[in-house]
Every structure is written in C-alpha cells, then in structure tokens.
Amino acid sequence: MNSPLTLDALRILDAIDRRKSFAAAAEELYRVPSAISYTINKLEEDLGVKLFDRSRRKAELTAVGRLVLEQGRRILIASEELTVLARQAAAGWEAELRICVDSALGFDTVYSLIAAFQELQPRTEVRLSEEVMAGAWDALNAQRCDLVIGAAGDPPGQGFSTLPLGELVFEFAVAMDHPLTRMPQPLSMELIRQYPTVVVADSSRYLPARSSGLLDGRSRIVVDSLQHKIDVQARGLGVGYLPLNLMQKELQNGSLQILKLAEPRAPQSISVAWHSSNRGKGLGWFIDQLRTMRFDRRLGLIAGEA
Known about the structure:
This protein is α/β, with parallel strands linked by helices. It contains 10 helices and 14 strands. The protein is elongated, with a radius of gyration of 30 Å.
C-alpha cells in the first residue's frame, strides 16, 4: 500500500509549523499558497484525519497533526542522512570504520587520531574496540574490524597488509612491598613460581589463543584487561610481565617495581594491519597518519617515522 505521507508532504507540514502560516510556508518552499493548501487538503482526505484545526483565526495542528509532524520530522532527518551517506559512499568514504586496538598499545594517541578524523569526515561512524593478544588478528580475520593497531606477530594467513610500528617491551613487575623485591636478582623461574601470576585472557574467538608470557606451574589470577592486570599486581596479589609503556605511572609513583629475571622475555614486534582489498578513504587516512608514527617502548605510540 502506498502511503500518502510523501517526503514532499512532510516538508510542507514542517514548513507550515515553523513559519506559522500557509503563506509563509509557500514563500519558503517557492510555491503559491494554493498549492500548499491543496497538498494539505489532499493529505487529510487520503489519511481520513484532520491535521489542522481551521475553526480558529489561524490554522493550528490537531493532536493527530502534531503526531504526524513529529514522527515525520524523524523521517525527513533520516532521508537527509541517507542522501549524505549515499554521496559519501560514492566518493569512497565509509559509512562506518571499525578500529581495533591491541590492549598493550594504549589509547591516548588513537583518541587524538579519531578527533582529527572527525574534523575531516564527521559523517563516518568510528567504532573502537579493544582486543588482547591473538584477539586483534582474530577480529581482523573474522571481519569484525577494518583496521588493527598494535597487532602482535605475523598475520594468520593471506590477504593482509601490514605496517611495522616497532617493538613492545614487557618487564617483570611486582608491587614495591612484594617479597620478591628482597631476593637477589636475577630471579630464577623456580623462585617466582612460588607466587600467583596474573594473566590477561586472550580475546580471540576463532584463532588459537596465545599464552604469551605465562609462568607455568603456579596458581593464576585471570583478568580481562591489561589495566586490571596492572591494578592487581600493584596491590601485590600476583606477579607477571607488563608492557613497559603502560606502567610508567605506577613506576613513577612507586606502586610497581621492575625485577630482573634469569630468563627475560623477548620484545614483541607490533604492526598496523588491514585487509589488502579494503580501499576505503577513511581507512587510507588512518594508515597515512600511522605511517608518520612509531612505537616508543616507554611512551607508546608517538609522532615520528616508525
């Protein structure tokens, strides 16, 4: 069934309400007043309802007319948004851009990038998510995101493009009053296995989960984010490796201390990654910005060629 509530009719209703008269609405819409009156009369006839109360000096919307106008304005806004999105897509800009950040990277610089992108292209909706270890590659591989910042290790297969960022450094850290701080360094694995280790659960759904940096053979406290891991270790509830860039505040205020191990953990190469077939302008803009950045082991993602 074809509805008599066309976009043109809704625009006329909107103009009458805003300009407070049929004549003023006709002037705004570059039409003669009789055309405006005809459209409204025909709309009332087709709907079988009165949209205006004409018993007064000036025509005023009835309760039904007000309902039609309020809901109609939502349709007008949606129509305008759809028009913009269609033109935006034709120009190569994405309606939605999904960015995944590895939890070890930190978000401050990413927030700044998003703010700059919004100035350039405010119509593209940016969806930001956080993943842990293999979860970043898993999100990209499963099409849950368009861009990964801070992907660790190699791609899980073909069809991905990468941009090296640098190396992520992990240090073994404990609370300042932890018993291990009073032991001779470097610490042996046998010694640290006497204490609970704090582990961040891998967020991968489909790819094999990674157990990076686990100190096996001891009790564990499993958390869902690196910030929780930092908090737990700073309280002395457990020990473990932490990204050096994320615990600078705790090192400065003395709530965490780095200890040397007999078997230190090797740095982890990280990169930016995306599907090679993706040619979106928004994605391209972020990649271009990230080409001018590098990952500093203490400061995180900063300006400067990677």
